[in-house]
Amino acid sequence: MRGRETGFTLIEMVVTLAVISILAAIALPSFFGESRKTRALAEVQPMFNDLRIRFEQYLQEKGQYPATIGEDTLWPAGAPSTPRPLNPLPATWQDLKVRISGPDTVICGYTWATGLANDASNIGSEASTGFGFATPTT
What we know:
single chain, two-stranded antiparallel ribbon, 3 helices
């Protein structure tokens, strides 16, 4: 007479594996999406802060903001979400005296549009429709 054997049956193992697979299929895309957002946020905030400072310095030195380079002129150019080097900077960025304070590889592309208040001629279609940007009155 054999004693009772302990352990999991094949059906129990398959059910457990199915539950873990379903949970992984739900959780992994959320995790990767959040990590991508966090990585982009960690890049964008310092870059915008540096550009803001450089614009204010340019305004103090020359009495006006630099000319618009347009929303179609992204730097660095290339496919989004793939790391690209910022250096060497284009001449328009060198005129602004941009200095890279963090890593010199970025995921996003950057540009700027400047102009007078109540003048929407420098606002591209992406800014006005995609972001809902309206020209300030002052």
